[in-house]
User: Fold this.
Amino acid sequence: AQTVTQSQPEMSVQEAETVTLSCTYDTSESDYYLFWYKQPPSRQMILVIRQEAYKQQNATENRFSVNFQKAAKSFSLKISDSQLGDAAMYFCAYRVNFGNEKLTFGTGTRLTIIP
Amino acid sequence: DGGITQSPKYLFRKEGQNVTLSCEQNLNHDAMYWYRQDPGQGLRLIYYSQIVNDFQKGDIAEGYSVSREKKESFPLTVTSAQKNPTAFYLCATQALRDEQFFGPGTRLTVL
Assistant:
């Protein structure tokens, strides 16, 4: 079974600094997607960024980028120039690219932004 | 406007009662999902449906039931067999090979 592990329950960063959230996963599949979702205090789940496993280039969305290491099964999220609005729970998620396409989530990392 | 609606936002249940959580979408997505969120445990899949009139159990289906009579609707019933139903419930939809979109959630509390 696929598993997703987020080993940092809480992280904090000074406003305008850079922070990296860690995620590792376990799978025997070769074709899959990885996602980072953000859940602010409103509890609305918002997609931050996604990575297709067959693409070697790391995905980037404005201040958010990932470091995807397929062999190591690692998928970290880097947030640059942290802003107060980035404060949220961040969830890493995995999905195979065929069949029922269920998402498997990690337990989340709570990110605090220090003004 | 397009999106996913969940109702009610807050729901209170007495022990022994069945309650139904609503999830409606106008995104024309085929697949719909129900997740349960507890503190420190992330999201866990309860049930999912990829087409109308068909659904499958997720990882924690015991004590829950669903139906999928219309593409737009995927209601979740929390039965009296669910021993610890207090949680935050999220509904999601997905088009094939696309990302999942989430509703605003329902907070269920057992009195």
Summary: Chain B touches chain A through 24 residues (CB under 8 Å). The longest strand of chain B covers residues 43-51. Chain B is about 0% helix and 50% strand.
